[in-house]
Amino acid sequence: MDWDQLELHPRIISAVRRCALSVRAVLCLSAPDLQRLSGLSRSDTQQLLTAAATACRRHAPLPALLSRGLQSSLRLSVGCPILDELLRGGLPAEGVTELSGESGAGKTQLALQVCLSVQYPTQYGGLNAGAVFISTEDSFPVRRLQQLIRGQSCLRSDVPPSLISSLNFSDRVYIEHAADLASLQECVSRRVPLLLARGLVRLVVVDSVAALFRSDFLASDWLERNRQLLTFSAALHHLSREYSTPVLCINQVTDVFSSSDSLVPSSSTGTPTVAPALGLAWANQVMVRLMMWRLQGTVSRGDQSSAPRRLQVVFAPHLARGGRGAGVWREGVRGLTETV
Predict the structure, then answer these.
(1) What's this protein's family per the entry (predicted)?
(2) pTM (two decimals)
(3) Taking CA 296 as the corner, what is the angle to CA 293 and CA 299, rounded to the nearest 5 degrees?
């Protein structure tokens, strides 16, 4: 793929050629590094990254595109019609979706809800299979999962009660604990493929992807960390493509002091704000990036109250940027009809 094939100003093309960078090499660099190497302005750098990413998608091998196209319309419902509307049906059947946010935002709550949603037949937004939940931080929230199971008849009013009562939800959520990177890689390379090959699961959840990559490396080990991060990401993508399985990765956040990065939504509270952890090395590996915020105030529903949340689409090839309000209730995460 040559730079002349891209719709870029000749000044930008000359700058990257002076650095002897290929189109794919550009996508491996962060925006600040690319700007420093090329001497381009911030806006030119963003144009360059956008054009390079578009070109790589356009020149993907045709057989791969055709095979993925058969599953492109299949979605996994998150269990709420309001949030499904934001996501145009739910999580894509193929690809890695990231859900990031601060502690208490409701990320794990939504992940648990999706673990139940996947067990429904396709006509109710599920994939008629179980889920594997890989926990790398705290112990698995068994009590909350049981509470969500008891609340399914309230949350999923679109599903016949007889079908809900016939599903053994807790028996189809497979829990894996990974205390270090070695056990995490072992899990995704051996145990998870076995569950997928047997048809027992059709959803992989990692909560959280940042925990081990942050704790197992010093700042000076960034090169080795990125190498292992890319290896882990490649394994997730392989599983998703091989078995047409959604992969949902929960991510932590880190403080940032600039809102100019296009991969970070603007914060209503000004600076400093937060950005998903692991930087662009990880951001380039996910197909859909979602963020969840816990806002100030209170919303009520019947005899329940909740701090309002907001689920935001940061980027996705098939979604427009936007967000919807939500609340966390006994039965699960529900979108709000009013704006928050």
Answers:
(1) Belongs to the RecA family. RAD51 subfamily.
(2) 0.77
(3) 95
